[in-house]
Amino acid sequence: MSDRRVDVCANCGIESAGDAVKLKDCTACRLIKYCGVDCQRAHRRQHKKACKKRAAELKDERLYGQGCERPEGHICPICTLPIPLPMNEHSGFYICCTKRVCYGCVVAAGKRDIFDCPFCRTPALEDEAILLAKLQKRADAKDPTALEALGEQYGTGKCGLEKDVPRAIELWSEAAGLGSQDSHFNLGIRYFEGDGVPRDAAKGVYHWEEAAMQGHVLARHNLGNHETQNGNYERAVRHWLISAKMGEKWSLDAIKDMFVDGIATKQQYASALKGYQAAMEEMKSHDRDVAEEELASMRSTAG
């Protein structure tokens, strides 16, 4: 006799029989199978709480188990090191090639008399209209990075465009559908704050979750803040542990405050601190140190 396990419908008990009876997984809990929609509905009515609980567990497995490394777009394409946070203070975004390059590589290129785009060598003084046309062409080809960047131009009124938040939302939504974590993050901000769209905190959190599961550090930090506001401190610490280990100082400080208040454990704070220090070490380079010194000197002179 065969020991092979036979799958059965959780409601009526019918066995899977090749092509004659094909069982489908419960879309909520993924633990049981049904032979059809009627059995699925009947079983759901009886075991709704169990399915709901399992669905929440599966979601948390994805939410806390994915996105623990920086995404490709947050790594300098020249030195291939993660860009320090906040990225806009340590790197420049180039519309010509839709690449974000760390200031260490920008300064290093300048020392070699390269003052154009350090990645694609597009002339630095190229007309904004030409750059915008190139960006639009890439966006028309459904490049998610270009769509996100074009949305940024509309959202802030840059590159000669009039500020048009609804158009930015439209572009970010399209880019998010194509997998852009930055677009998910931007949409999360807009929906959570009701900026340019009706306020919808649930939709804002949804977009932050999607971004966080793709490695967006600030989206992960914001989820921790949101959980804190709802009194879910354990969930908040779990988010901040991930983002702190990816180099987010705000998350490290938040865990430290939780530790001082007796909410986070000593082990959690120690783990966050060790991970943060390792992430910072990974982002260091001689060129970045030089760039930081030059920027500090420029700020001092300007002040």
Task: Explain the layout of strands and helices.
Blueprint: E1 24-25, E2 33-34, H1 37-46, H2 48-65, E3 91-94, E4 99-102, H3 103-111, H4 128-140, H5 144-156, H6 165-177, H7 181-193, H8 201-212, H9 217-229, H10 233-244, H11 249-260, H12 266-282, H13 286-302
Antiparallel strand pairs: 1-2, 3-4
GO molecular function, one term: zinc ion binding
Protein name: MYND-type domain-containing protein
Organism: Thalassiosira oceanica
Give a quick summary of the entry:
By secondary structure, the chain is mostly helical. The chain has 13 helices and 4 strands.
Give a written overview of the molecule.
- By secondary structure, this protein is mainly alpha-helical.
- Among the domains are: 1-62, no CATH class; 74-126, 2-Layer Sandwich (Herpes Virus-1).
- Helices cover 57% and strands 4% of the residues.
- It has 13 helices and four strands.
- It has helices at residues 37-46, 48-65, 103-111, 128-140, 144-156, 165-177, 181-193, 201-212, 217-229, 233-244, 249-260, 266-282, 286-302, and strands at 24-25, 33-34, 91-94, 99-102.
- A two-stranded antiparallel sheet has the order 1-2. A two-stranded antiparallel ribbon has the order 3-4.
- Helix 6 packs across helix 7 (181-193).
- The radius of gyration is 24 Å and the shape is globular.
- Residues 1-5 have low confidence and may be disordered.
